[in-house]
UniProtKB/TrEMBL annotation, chain A:
It comes from Terrimonas ginsenosidimutans. The keyword Kinase does not apply. This is AraC family transcriptional regulator. Pfam families: HTH_18. PROSITE patterns: HTH_ARAC_FAMILY_1, HTH_ARAC_FAMILY_2. InterPro entries: Homeodomain-like_sf, HTH_AraC, HTH_AraC-typ_CS, Tscrpt_reg_AraC-type_HTH. It comes from the Bacteria. The keyword Transcription regulation applies. Residues 54-151 form the HTH araC/xylS-type domain. PANTHER family: ARAC-FAMILY TRANSCRIPTIONAL REGULATOR (PTHR43280), HTH-TYPE TRANSCRIPTIONAL ACTIVATOR RHAS (PTHR43280:SF28). SMART domains: HTH_ARAC.
Length: 157, 123
């Protein structure tokens, strides 16, 4: 399976296009409306770069459970690896690696809440080692996966 | 986090019935109350305090933000366009309709309690 090819195909099949909607009500703009218009005008990045980087984010959201490499993620954005990391960080404020880690931790939280055991959750969210997963989970949430599950059980929503 | 509102009862109605929050705590405190709501997705998550606006300088601050169109706060949502359609049908007024701003789509609504509230979706 080639996740990049699959993803590109999905995008094309869905006919994904980017529509920029910019509607400001009335003619007398508020301070905030003016600021938004100004930021949009002065943004240092071209619209197509936002679109490309968004594609990489969607790629990670879709393939977080697979063993995906930075080169594949950059390819989903149609950029070289170095350029991609720089632009991604400029747009989202974190590196792609950190972003993918956050996606995986959030998915893991949802699975642990459902009652799945830690080992299953580890593999379900793309990690191939339970200690690595547990350590990443603890750094992201402050709790180990087991403690997180216990806490959730004692504080049902 | 706290949000100043000009009328706690009206705010509770708007934030639960229109925006979909769930009431978490309501403790009477003199003429006002400690009133919090939470997201329906995370009932043990961050609580939003609907705080009475009794302090005069706070009224000045809130009005200045409102008049400038600046959101008092921003809520993350998965689909701004869908929320915009739903809320507009429910009679909610927007000062900024869904607008793409680089990596996010935003919209700004009037909470009828003296605040502009921004909805934001990461694209």
């Amino acid at each position: 399976m080639d996740p990049v090819a699959d993803f590109t195909e999905d995008v094309l099949r869905a006919g994904v296009t980017d529509s920029v909607i910019f509607v400001l009500m009335g003619t007398d703009k508020t301070y905030y409306q003016e600021q938004i218009a100004k930021i949009s005008r002065e943004s240092g990045l071209a619209e197509y770069q936002y679109i490309q980087v968004r594609q990489s984010r969607h790629f990670m959201e879709k393939h977080y459970a697979d063993k995906i490499e930075l080169d594949q993620i950059a390819m989903a954005a149609c950029m070289s690896r170095f350029h991609f990391v720089r632009v991604f960080q400029m747009i989202y404020g974190v590196t792609p690696r950190q972003y993918l880690k956050d996606v995986r931790i959030n998915k893991a939280k949802a699975l642990l809440k459902k009652g799945l055991d830690v080992t299953t959750v580890c593999y379900e969210v793309g990690y191939d080692s339970v200690p690595t997963f547990s350590s990443a989970f603890k750094r992201g949430t402050g709790l180990s996966p087991g403690r997180y599950q216990q806490w959730h059980k004692s504080n049902p929503e | 986090m706290s949000l100043l509102v000009d009328d706690q009862e009206k705010a509770l109605k708007f934030y639960t019935e229109k925006l979909g929050f769930i009431k978490k705590t309501e403790v009477p405190l003199g003429e006002h109350k400690w009133l919090t709501v939470v997201s329906s997705d995370e009932r043990n998550g961050v609580e939003l305090v609907l705080e009475p606006m009794a302090f005069e300088p706070a009224k000045v601050y809130q009005k200045a933000l409102k008049d400038a169109g600046i959101p008092y706060t921003s809520f993350a949502t998965d689909d701004v366009m869908k929320e915009f359609e739903r809320l507009r049908s429910a009679g909610v007024e927007f000062s900024i309709e869904p607008t793409v701003m680089g990596p996010v789509m935003i919209a700004v609504l009037d909470d009828t309690c003296g605040n502009n509230i921004q909805l934001a979706q990461m694209l």
